[in-house]
Amino acid sequence: MPRSDVDICNLGITRAGGEPIDAIDEETPLGAWCFANYPQLRDWALSLHRWTFATRIARLTELGAPEVRPLDHVFLLPADLVGAVHAYRAQASVDGQLLHRHIMTKEGVALDCAAAFAEYTARVAEAAWPSPFVEFVATALASGVALVKQARTLSSELWARAVGPRFEQGEPGGLLFAAIQADGRNAPERRLGAYDPGPLVTARYAGAPGGLALILPSPPTFIDFS
Question: 20 to 30 A from 141, CA-CA: which of 55, 151, 191, 220?
Fold first, then answer.
């Protein structure tokens, strides 16, 4: 079923006992709240995981010579990028040659390749979201709506249902974990080959107990139970 931002907001609103809205910018308290908070919640949820349904590979637009040498080309990042780029590649393929050497500039990213592609999580429309991800986002949003209604206990319960009780310790659970599992079943098979994580990943996770550790972005600003 095609979904819109209003559909997702109304799923969350009704789960928190609120009245549905007709437009995300309507002049009602919940309409104003969704207008202010929903875009951030959407982008935050998409940035939590390398979602299969939101992964895109796009050719980058070259801007010119970078300010930083020895890299020779600077590119504009995709306009629909959410979070960080997963990989820079020399070909438009998930198996394309990885470009490990890059430097972020004020204009975009500097690379040592004349033609470059980015594999990244995109800000995809709600109509493309699978049902488990919709359930997660709607429940997380319902937690925020419950705070607006001064129902703090319900808000805490909805938040725990959405992300699990140990989310702040880097352990996704609840509907988020279910959405990640469902997304993994839809992930395309990739060709086996030698794995080189690159200098950035190696530096970030060097010395981490048990190998790579999951680092989750901070929750949306409306989630505050202090």
Answer: 55
94 and 149 co-located in one domain:
no
| DSSP H or E segment with residue 149 | none
Question: Looking at 12-101, which runs of residues are DSSP E strands?
Answer: 55-59, 61-64, 73-76, 81-89
Q: How far is it between the farthest Cα atoms of the chain?
A: 58
Q: Which residue type occupies 105?
A: T
Q: Is residue 219 part of a domain?
A: no
76: three-class secondary structure by DSSP = strand
Do 42 and 134 fall into the same domain? yes
HSE-up of 191 (CA within 13 Å, CB side)? 6
The residue ranges of the chain whose pLDDT is under 70 are 1-2, 64-71, 187-217, 222-226
Instruction: Give tens-digit pLDDT for 205-215.
Output: 444 434 444 55
DSSP, collapsed to helix, strand or coil, labels residue 167 as: helix
Q: Is the pTM of this model over 0.85?
A: no
| Domain annotation covers residue 225 | no
Same domain, 58 and 16: no
Residue 220 falls within a domain, yes or no?
no
